Amino acid sequence: MLKKLSYSILIAGLCSCSSIVKTKVKTIDPLKAVSIKQKGLDKLSIQERLEREYASIDPSDTTKLAFFADELYMKGSDASLRGDSEEAALFFEYVLKVKKEDNYVQKRYAVELIRLNKLSEAKEILASLYKSENSEKVGLILAGVHTALKEKREAQLVYLSILKNFPSSEEACVFLAKSYSLESKFKKAFSLLNKCERSSKGKAIYSFYRGKIEIARGNIKSAQKNFKKSLRVDPTYQQAAIGLGAIYEEEKKFANALEVYEKFLKKSPHAYAILKNVIQIYFALGKYDKVIPYAERLSNIDSSDLNLKVRLGILYADSKRYEDAKGIFKEILVAVPKSDKVLYYLGTLYQQTGELDSAIGYYSRVPEESSLFHESNIQIAQLLQASAIEQKEAKDKLVSFVNERADKHTNLRVELRVLLAGFYENEGALQSAVDEMEKIKNEKTFNEGHEYYFAALLEKINRFDRAKEVIEGILVKNPENPHALNFLGYSLLERGEDLERAFYLISKAVELRPDDGYIRDSLGWYYYKIGEYEKALVEIKKAWTLVNTDVVITKHLAMTYAKLKKFTKAKEFYVEALKNCKVESERRDVLKELSGLEKLRLPASQ
Question: N or C: which end of the chain has fewer CB atoms below 10 A?
């Protein structure tokens, strides 16, 4: 298989041996005097120090010169490994002052110059080396430099020279063919590839490159045929599988692309690029269950790919494989211990499995500066609330948490206090719920929804005037708030106050929200209150159709049937209301109504 020409690969090849001989002569290490990393040095540049050291050595002292060159060569090699090409090139340059004819060091020097983008200087060295050595590797690098300098003809001549001396050179063949194709000399390119293929049978690379050239020409069908041929020659030739799959993907033939990729994976199960393509297709198709085994394999190949691990963790969670999801997010957390998203995901997973203390622990580690800090604290409060409902002793933890966070973080204050008010309401401590709302009613984030809930709580403790004041305030700001209109209208209706205004408010609310079952029920209840039971039945039936699980609406429907003397239907809906009761007070109320209905004697005609 042809790999892309890589300087690092070529350097590895070039470093197989060295002509530099080390000596055991004791002298002062010149590197200690020239290292630019060492502290305490004066401001002279490294080059000046090297030049001074070199000039101080007697040209006839071959032993000292050899030691100087050896030490600089080692230092240059070290700099090269560290990726410091500027320093490496400088050291190699001074090595060559001593060992001018050392071809190996010249190669190393040329490679560092290429890395520094000093291509013209590198070209001169490589041209001389290629002429003297006639090395395939040196020739390929030289041709690559010519190409980079846009010297196409010179590059082609070098490739032709390589093929003359090394007829089986795949790299020279395909790069020369590519060069021809870029000049639109397609016939010449194909002729070259065919010739190379005949002399190197069993090589999939040539069909693949014909396909690549056809892609560039826009001949997709021909490209497809060449990629298929390449895979027939070598079923493990990955580039051909990627090329053929890409054609199918471009044509939206995802099943065909998957067939190519999965067939390839049977031969090469750990092909990274192919696995990524399969995962992307299944994600695009929404077949997340199919993604998991491929994502697992890919994650095992590259355990450093944290993005893939996150996606795999989310897939596990979506598949309800919570323990697997926890495991992979914990792995990620080792690599990024302060990741707010990972901490939040872990909190969510432990919450999902009912391990509330662990969930709270992870949520509490989300840093304050994170965009998830707010939501994490709300989740903690909700978990503490759930614990407080089941364990009375946990109530103090909830109250303490809300007070501490609400006092410290203004952006959390309203939401946490409302949540605590809801807890008190469920506990039946309505005055405590009202007190919580009183603490935040002047906050900037106290919105209409909060005001509406505040009014509902006030009404429950029979502070109707205060509740009315809050609702009237909402209507001043927003005269067309359907919920506020309905709230005020229904409250007036229940107290038998100003029924005309109650009807106006409720009718307006129905007009704004005709499909809201609760508002529609209020209109029906108005008709019930004034004795127009047929009209009441029409509206409340509509309301029940919209919200058939609400106890109050179901009870209203039963009561209306009773008034119309349709006792069987009335009993049916009382029983239905009983099924939906969530608190004991609701259940007692419905049973009382049902008991009164049972005492009635039905006429014989019924």
Answer: C
